[in-house]
Amino acid sequence: MRPCRTSGLWLGQWDHGVIERRNARGQLVDSENCVLAAAPSNGTAPVAPLNIVAGYYVAENETCGNPVSGVFYYDGRRVGMMYPPETGPAELMPIGRPVRQGNMWRLPDGSEVQVLAPNRLRWSYEELSPPMRTCASDQVPAGARVRG
């Protein structure tokens, strides 16, 4: 088995055709048991109230630079889901007082966030998104970045 190469938050490659593969610790891994979604390497701590790392999230099976299924943004005060390049500038709403329901957080607009790990989530608004992971802001397309 080769050693896993680390590069920021995304480790290994996505196994297409495999929904989820986990190691004995329950971590998401590729076919060579390299952890795919590791804890943030820059020491970023989760931010209340959702207790996830602030920043941009894209589907785990997509690249940060080409997020086909959208970009989720969270900074502890605001939240939003953007679909570049179709939408204009990011429209965010105040996080308000999300309500916890089991392992989900219901947001004021009716959408829900399921926290999978401090840097992984699933977002839903009528449909459940694939698992999402954090991306560095400079890797996210300019049309999906928050201004101000």
Write a short abstract of this structure.
This protein is mainly beta and 148 residues long.
Largest pleated sheet: 9 strands, antiparallel
Overall 3D form: globular
Query: SS-based structural class?
Result: mainly beta
Given as residue ranges, the uncertain stretches (5+ residues, pLDDT < 50) are 5-18, 37-41
Order of helices and strands: EEEEEEEEE
Q: Strand percentage, roughly? A: 25-35%
| Share of residues in helices | under 10%
How widely separated are the two ends? Answer: 46 Å
Name the assembly state: single chain
Give structural notes.
The protein is mainly beta. The chain has two domains: 38 residues, no CATH class; 90 residues, no CATH class. 0% of the residues lie in helices and 25% in strands. It contains no helices and nine strands. Strands 4-3-2-1-9-8-7-6-5 form a nine-stranded antiparallel beta sheet, with no helix packed on it. It is globular. The termini are far apart.
